[in-house]
């Protein structure tokens, strides 16, 4: 998609602090962090949402998991992190992505800290 900011980041057409990547996935810092470590992991291919994943996306999904594991190890947050998928009205960018959250939360009252 030409106007998708995540597609532009994946293609190197928009700036982001890259934390890891593979052939089919890339991880970068959120521009609106809700925790000390807030990294987004996306497929490089445009997939709108979790509900749009198909059987032939299995390799992409696995690469996203491997990139997330490397970021978790690199950030040394294995002792406390969350991997979150937002959907529907809670998904701000229409490009499937995970939020990797670790470290001290920015807002102690955040619902994510209570789940």
TrEMBL record:
Pfam families for the chain: DcpS_C
Record-annotated HIT domain positions: 5-110
InterPro entries: Histidine_triad_HIT, HIT-like, HIT-like_sf
SUPFAM superfamilies hit by this protein: HIT-like
Renumbered ranges of motif Histidine triad motif: 95-99
GO MF annotation terms: catalytic activity
List of catalytic residues: 97
Protein name: HIT domain-containing protein
Species, as recorded: Candidatus Woesebacteria bacterium GWB1_43_5
Species classification: Bacteria, Candidatus Woeseibacteriota
């Amino acid at each position: 998609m030409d106007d998708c900011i995540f597609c532009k980041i994946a293609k190197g057409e928009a700036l982001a602090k890259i934390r890891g990547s593979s052939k089919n996935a890339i991880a970068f810092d959120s521009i609106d962090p809700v925790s000390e470590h807030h990294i987004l992991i996306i497929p490089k291919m445009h997939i709108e949402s979790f509900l749009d994943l198909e059987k032939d996306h299995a390799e992409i999904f696995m690469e996203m998991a491997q990139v997330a594991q490397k970021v978790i190890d690199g950030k040394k947050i294995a002792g406390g992190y969350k991997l979150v998928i937002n959907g529907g009205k809670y998904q701000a960018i229409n490009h499937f992505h995970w939020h990797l959250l670790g470290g001290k939360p920015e807002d102690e009252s955040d619902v994510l800290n209570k789940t």
